Amino acid sequence: MTGKNKFPRIGSALPGRPVSRRRALKLIGGTLAACSLAPGVSFGAGRTRKRPNVLFILSDDHRWDVMSNMNHPFVQTPHMDRLAREGVRFNNAFVTTSLCSPSRASFLTGQYAHTHGVKNNLTPWSEANVTFIDHFKRAGYDTAFIGKWHMPGSLPELKGADLFVTFTVQGGQGRYFDCPLVVDGREEPSRKPYITEELTDRALEFIGRKRENPFCLYLSHKAVHHQFLPPPDLRRLYDGADLGLPPEADSMISMVDGQIFSGMVGPLEYHYRNYCETVTATDREIGRVLDTLEAMGILDDTVVVYAGDNGYFWGEHRLVDKRWAFEESIRVPFIVRYPALTVDPGTPADQMALNVDLAPTLLDLAGLPVPRSMEGCSLAPVLKDRSVQGRDAFLYEYFKDFPYNVPELNAVRTDRYKFVRYSGRRKHEIFDLARDPKEMHNLAGTPEGDALLPELSALMERFAAGSGS
């Protein structure tokens, strides 16, 4: 991070010498100072300014670097680029569990999976959980949840939402074309063939309602999840592109090493092109929403946040799908646009942002108190000052999700190092992200790794015993 961070920023030049135990202690020490703003302390409380509308747009399986504002070699995302240009893009944004159901519950509650209880795609959502939508409803907002719910068990009551539009087909994943919906408990056919367009239409209808109150809208897309299907007019958009897949990838990688459960039958290149075209299709729908807000004259009065629920492997480490603690799996786009409280829009932030930070950030920007039950921290101060101190480390957790061939694991990621500890017999891993950003060289068992291991292990134990953030 810039400014006051305790660790060297990722990518900074470092001497290529072994790390002594004394140096390791110096580099790792003190990492439990999670955030400069503690949970429950409101950045926005007491202000008399107009309460903003709140719009959170969540996509599925969109990793952090597949946007043109991240210099992707060919994918075009002009509307995500606009959000980054007019707001703040968090360059180091992560999920605390890289899996649909746990991550979505963390966005909603501001809590880790071990707290909200949705540990994998099999453990059910508890009606005792409180979402940020509930808090906005109590504060007098008009509220809606539109899109993918995808948490085990029956659909929730979601009492805080005035409008609840979702789908249950294909185990809650929905489908890209002709996806039936459940609207406030009643089944309805989709009015548009393509699900991303249909959900956007529903969102625009909610936004356009006559109202006296501000609104809070959670718009959750199926895209860009498998099967990665773009609308007909964008098919073959990137057929001539040089895909630039990693050297360890090959066309049939999804069929080896137990990865058949990812569902990606066929060449990796085919699926990756579809994925990129589907990202562009999602971006186009974001543009429709921004254009509508602007035409209504309320865009600058609306907090707009875009994020992905987890990353995705495209052959890195000879993997597809997600779940593992490597960067490609855990890093996501996270962009906040709110001109009223943003200084130097377009200047990105290097502070670590987590999915558990969304709920406290939205409440804080709206001037509402942040409950102490939330384990994330508000990122609102970063919008005003990119040099404020953020967290130095966070806990990543993955619980067994049958039938996927990924062991349970915990990981600690600091600004420089990552320590991964697996259940069972798989050897632990230590990576120096500054010298090895692709995580190709495990330091476990080396002099460098041996010097780092005691403090990284102790840090993991402290996180496991505490809040995790």
Descriptive terms for the model:
469 residues, alpha/beta, Arylsulfatase, C-terminal domain, Alkaline Phosphatase, subunit A, 2 domains, ten-stranded mixed sheet, globular, disordered N terminus
Task: Write a short abstract of this structure.
The protein is of the alpha/beta class. The chain has helices spanning 21-28, 78-86, 100-109, 113-116, 132-138, 195-207, 268-295, 327-330, 358-365, 380-384, 447-465; strands spanning 53-59, 88-94, 142-147, 163-166, 181-183, 186-188, 215-220, 302-308, 313-314, 320-321, 334-337, 349-354, 393-398, 409-414, 417-422, 429-432. The model is unreliable at 1-42 (pLDDT under 50).
Low-pLDDT sequence parts: 1-42
CATH superfamily descriptor of the largest domain: Alkaline Phosphatase, subunit A
- Name the strands of the widest sheet in spatial order: 6-5-4-3-7-1-8-11-2-12
SSE class: alpha/beta
Distance between the termini: 17 Å
Which of globular, elongated, flat, extended, rod-shaped describes the shape?
Answer: globular
Q: Give the SSE string.
A: HEHEHHHEEEEHEHEEEHEEHHEEEEH
CATH class call of the largest domain? Alpha Beta
- Give the domain tally: 2
Task: Tell me which oligomeric state these chains represent.
Answer: single chain
Helix proportion range = 10-25%
Q: What's the CATH architecture name of the largest domain? A: 3-Layer(aba) Sandwich
* CATH topology assignment of the largest domain: Alkaline Phosphatase, subunit A
The average pLDDT score comes to: 89
Report Rg. 21 Å
Number of helical segments with 4 or more residues? 11
